[in-house]
Amino acid sequence: MGRSGSHLDAVGFHLSKSTIELKHPEFLEYVSGHYAPVVTGGPLVIRSLTFKSNNKSKQPFGPYGEERGTPFSFRVPDGAKILGFKPRSWGLREEATII
Is 36 helix (H, G, I), strand (E, B) or coil? Predict the structure, then answer.
């Protein structure tokens, strides 16, 4: 995993970009994290993410961010794979699409 830069988001939080490197036939099979408003009464945003691969001997990637708020998780159905992860942000509204 390598760091590739950082920037500030719309409300001034320091964000880092990371790269997760998998070697064939390894793939991501599980994503978990937490979501919560940044400020009381504000919109819900993803606060943390953790990724696990099908390589059971490897530690999870993450958590990235702050593990605060409501937990969530997504396990890939048998025979399927996560092909990509695309975060989007409009001000404080954030969402992520698992491809």
Answer: strand
